[in-house]
Write a structure and sequence with these properties.
647 residues, mainly beta, five-stranded mixed beta sheet, 0% helix, 49% strand, elongated
């Protein structure tokens, strides 16, 4: 963690509170403490040390960290003529270059330099400045250093303010105030100041907040300020794009804030105890108003610069939102906090008992106690990022995630079959919640087997007519325990739907029973040709899902009902309807017995272009056609009928 934590030892090197008392200047406490971040996964490290009293922080357009060094050594209530410094750390955690100030600002009393803001092109550095002690005064100023680091222009860029603290530049935000400096006047309203002319517009502030000490813009261009004391109702104030003000979240003494540049969450420093000094960093959801404690600090980690009640202190995010910089006045340093700031909603792995094996939860129960693992890469590779088991609702929630790509894997239990992928990839963005469904079926192990015939079927729908095929499913039990067949559903990826099942479900199989189901399947009109192969179905029974390994091919006898003819787009289609059909042979003869056309043995659903065996269009007239159908069992059936052709 920090390299410069002070330690005191008494006897057995026991760390104790060290009390420094000054009857003239008040009392301060120091302790062996540092910022403690409460959510897991965060790291606190020293960024810049050796700063007398770090106060407000900001990020310059070039990405460097700007530190207001409120170098006070005066007794409370007495004039302080020690200079303030505006220091620049480039890169933000360079331990050397902040020691040489970017700008030294002489003062003749408190409170000195407040907030700092830059023009969008980085050529001008604005900062607030005020003098004197107490009372309603109008000696506050906004000064400008152009280019940054040069002596401020005279006269001041803007004067006549009371006690200005926070300062921000409203770039493309805030409607009529776009491009203007927004300043929180500690004893007055919020102002919008034109960066070219210095003209100020008054943004009405709530009367209950008498000391506004910091402000920041959200990504959606709302302005947030903090201020006040315990006696006058401190809180977080939101100023919307129309310039109206509302007190939205009351807090104990809140004096510094920043807004995450991506999530829009507010991070606010509040004082929870004066003696001994103790502070907290609160995280606030500006939409719901939910407040959580992000970090705590006390004693030597005092986050408040200046005298008690002075409202000093600062924190700011890096532009990408990955790092939070915080002034630790008690340890003369700025620290950086890194971790999962840009969190998403959770990824929820949901488990259910897929009784019918279709991979969809159809009013089916949840599964608890299943092991699930989250991986920080696709395809469940590497070590698991988080792991756990599903709860009574079938859910395992993976929280505190940053936006990105992940994968979730289930640990398959013995005797169960996965009907959804056991590893599922997911990409999640800030604010999103994703749910991945995992369906599993208990396998039937009590001697129920399934057989299907034929081994494959081909569908040839036309643009106006679906293609139907009949599949025979035979179930057999070798157990003395009856089994109920609840469902017969297409396996995932099959190119058909089920039209009917005979006999209707549910059906109970008795001891050592055997039963054949006639399943009429269909591929919709307008879809292309497709072939389905066995195993075709997930078969749900009272003892569980029948394992696909036991779904075997069994030949059934050929049954020919009729041959269907259909003319479409100049093609005459011959399709044999029945069960167990493997091939068809079509022959066409003239009434005199001359063979005009033959197809040979082809797949069922043959299309004839109305051309003879020499490739010429046949003449109009009456013909005889002979269809011979061959079954999977080797038997054949033949039909002879008349055909009239008019073209």
């Amino acid at each position: 963690m920090r390299s410069n934590i002070q330690q005191w030892s008494i006897g057995m090197s026991v760390a104790v509170w060290f009390l420094i008392a000054s009857f003239a200047g008040g009392i301060a406490f120091e302790a062996l403490a540092e910022i403690q971040v409460i959510p897991p996964g965060f790291t606190v490290m020293t960024c810049v040390s050796g700063i007398a009293t770090p106060n407000k922080l900001t990020i310059a357009p070039d990405g460097s960290l700007i530190i207001v060094d409120y170098d006070t050594t005066a007794t409370i209530g007495d004039p302080d003529t020690t200079p303030d410094y505006i220091r620049k750390s480039d890169p933000p955690c360079n331990p050397r270059n902040p020691q040489t100030p970017l700008l030294t600002v002489q003062r003749d009393s408190d409170p000195g330099v407040g907030g700092v803001a830059f023009s969008s092109d980085g050529t001008k550095m604005f900062f607030t400045f005020s003098t004197g002690n107490g009372g309603d005064r109008t000696d506050g100023e906004i000064r400008v250093s152009s280019p940054p680091g040069t002596a401020p222009t005279v006269p001041p860029f803007k004067s006549g303010l009371n006690q200005p603290f926070g300062l921000a530049l409203a770039l493309a935000c805030f409607g009529d105030f776009a491009g203007k400096l927004i300043v929180a006047d500690g004893k007055g309203p919020i102002y919008a100041v034109d960066t070219m002319t210095g003209d100020a517009m008054n943004i009405t502030a709530p009367e209950t907040l008498l000391k506004q000490t910091d402000l920041a813009f959200s990504p959606d261009c709302n302005l947030f300020t903090v201020g006040g004391s315990l006696a006058v109702g401190a809180g977080v104030v939101r100023v919307n794009q129309l310039g109206t003000v509302s007190l939205v979240i009351p807090l104990p003494y809140a004096f510094a804030l920043t807004v995450h540049p991506i999530t829009g969450d507010l991070y606010v420093i509040t004082r929870v105890s004066t003696f001994p000094p103790a502070h907290e960093i609160k995280k606030i959801n500006p939409t719901t108003g939910e407040i959580t404690t992000f970090a705590t600090a006390d004693g030597a980690s005092d986050l408040e610069a200046g005298e008690v009640g002075g409202g000093g202190g600062g924190l700011v995010f890096s532009p990408d939102g990955s790092t939070l910089y915080v002034s630790e006045a008690g340890l003369d340093q700025v620290v950086k906090i890194t971790g999962p700031f840009i969190t998403t909603g959770p990824i929820i792995a949901h488990k259910f008992h897929d009784l019918n094996g279709n991979g969809v939860q159809d009013s089916e129960p949840n599964l608890s106690g299943w092991a699930m693992s989250l991986f920080s890469s696709s395809n469940c590779q590497g070590s698991a990022l988080q792991s756990g088991t599903t709860d009574a609702n079938g859910n395992k929630t993976f929280a505190n995630l940053v936006a990105g790509s992940y994968s979730v894997a289930e640990t398959l239990q013995s005797g169960w079959q996965a009907n959804t992928p056991t590893c599922q990839n997911v990409t999640i963005a800030v604010g999103e919640t994703k749910t991945l469904n995992f369906g599993n079926s208990l396998l039937c192990t009590t001697g129920v087997t399934a057989f299907s015939s034929p081994h494959s079927v081909t569908y040839r729908p036309t643009s106006t007519r679906p293609s139907q095929k009949t599949i025979i499913v035979t179930l057999a039990t070798s157990s003395s325990t009856p089994a109920t067949v609840d469902s017969i559903l297409p396996k995932d990826g099959q190119p058909f739907t089920i039209v009917s099942i005979t006999p209707a479900l549910p059906v109970t199989l008795g001891s050592a029973d055997r039963l054949a189901f006639t399943v009429v399947t269909q591929r919709a009109a307008g879809l292309g040709n497709a072939t389905a192969t066995s195993p075709y179905f997930n078969i749900g029974t009272s003892c569980g899902l029948i394992t696909t390994a036991s779904e075997l091919t069994q030949v059934v006898p050929l049954t020919l009902k009729r041959v269907l003819l259909e003319l479409q787009a100049g093609q005459l289609r011959f399709e044999a309807l029945g069960i167990g059909i493997k091939q068809i042979n079509v022959q066409v003869f003239s009434l005199s017995g001359k063979r005009v056309y033959t197809s040979g043995w082809v797949e069922n659903g043959h299309e004839w272009s109305l051309e003879d065996i020499n490739g010429r269009k046949i003449a109009n007239g009456v013909y005889l056609y002979v269809t011979t159908v061959r079954g999977y069992d080797g038997s054949v059936r033949t039909q002879v009928k008349k055909l009239v052709i008019t073209q």
